């Protein structure tokens, strides 16, 4: 049976856009020692925009962008949507004429008459090739916190698009509040090392794991669980659902995917990250009343 103090606190949370799927989830929060965050769509708005597009010497910029956008237009990944919109906005006709295959956590493989095309992160297209492209110019963009998507054909890298996503307005404040409540903060992202480092620094996060494939998010959560005994996880994507299920307390962003919303214990209805520290403090206060 639910304690009156829990009931009052759950309804207090609801008024502030924190949906607890049961009083027990509120009770767990007070003992959290660490909280892990997904990056894209959780710490950031999840709506990246293309800031730079560079191609191999001797190839036509518009034709290359048309091919890239033709591939990305077949994916609903936020990066893919951004690249497709960028091409359309500058007047490029986007044709979905190539067959594609999704490679989760890496990018897309496409099949053209002239051979295979790879679209995705440095690891997917080859780290050395990515580093050498235009004497490292593409990876220098990653130091600014941009995500760089490469396209490779059988002759090497043909193009790179840099995309910038922005931190949610309240992300810095939310992390600061958690840290002052004594909570260790971690970011888990599929993005590359340089981009992850830049975003983690911008957000003020204690620690991060880059190039974290979907299944690795669970592995890292289990490590945090072993070390801290309790761990919170905040995410928005299908990719985050297994980690949300593994965490002591799983938080989904209200605008997250259905799977994330279903799997989470707590939903941040207004996508406001500062509600996490609020909820933890609410739980701690409630525990003092009950005891
Ligand atoms: P995150 O954890 O940042 O939400 P994902 O696991 O969805 O990222 O993807 C990890 C990385 O794989 C992305 O940062 C990107 O480099 C690459 N990637 C995934 N899907 C695509 C795509 N459709 N186009 C280009 N790159 C992609
Ligand atoms: Mg995400």
From TrEMBL:
Belongs to the cation transport ATPase (P-type) (TC 3.A.3) family. Type IB subfamily. It is found in: Cell membrane. GO terms for cellular component: plasma membrane. The chain holds residues 294 to 584 of 634 of the full protein. Keywords: ATP-binding, Cell membrane, Ion transport, Magnesium, Membrane, Metal-binding, Nucleotide-binding, Phosphoprotein, Translocase, Transmembrane, Transmembrane helix, Transport. This is Cd2+/Zn2+-exporting ATPase. Its main location: membrane. The keyword Heme does not apply. GO terms for molecular function: ATP binding; ATP hydrolysis activity; ATPase-coupled monoatomic cation transmembrane transporter activity; metal ion binding. The keyword Transcription regulation does not apply. The lineage of its organism: Bacteria, Bacillati, Bacillota, Bacilli, Bacillales.
């Amino acid at each position: 049976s639910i304690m009156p103090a829990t009931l009052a606190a759950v309804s207090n949370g609801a008024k502030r856009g924190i949906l607890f799927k049961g009083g027990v989830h509120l009770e767990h929060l007070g003992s959290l020692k660490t909280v892990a965050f997904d990056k894209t769509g959780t710490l950031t708005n999840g709506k990246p925009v293309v800031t730079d597009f560079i191609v191999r010497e001797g190839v036509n910029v518009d034709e290359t962008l048309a091919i890239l956008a033709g591939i990305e237009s077949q994916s609903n990944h936020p990066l893919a949507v951004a690249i497709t919109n960028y091409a359309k906005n500058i007047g490029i006709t986007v044709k979905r004429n190539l067959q594609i295959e999704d490679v989760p956590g890496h990018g897309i493989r496409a099949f053209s008459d002239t051979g295979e095309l790879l679209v995705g992160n440095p690891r997917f297209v080859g780290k050395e090739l990515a580093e050498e492209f235009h004497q490292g110019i593409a990876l220098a963009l990653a130091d600014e916190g941009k995500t760089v998507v490469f396209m490779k054909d059988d002759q090497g890298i043909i193009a790179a698009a840099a995309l910038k996503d922005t931190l949610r307005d309240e992300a810095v404040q939310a992390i600061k509040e958690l840290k002052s409540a004594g909570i260790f903060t971690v970011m888990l992202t599929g993005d590359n090392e340089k981009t992850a480092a830049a975003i983690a620094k911008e957000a003020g996060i204690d620690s991060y794991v880059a190039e974290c494939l979907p299944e690795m998010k669970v592995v890292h959560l289990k490590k945090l669980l072993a070390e801290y005994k309790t761990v919170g996880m905040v995410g928005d994507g299908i990719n985050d659902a297994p980690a949300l299920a593994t965490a002591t307390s799983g938080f989904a962003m209200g605008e997250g995917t259905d799977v994330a919303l279903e799997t989470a214990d707590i939903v941040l209805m207004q996508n406001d990250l500062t509600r996490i520290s609020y909820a933890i403090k609410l739980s701690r206060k409630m525990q003092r009343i009950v005891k």
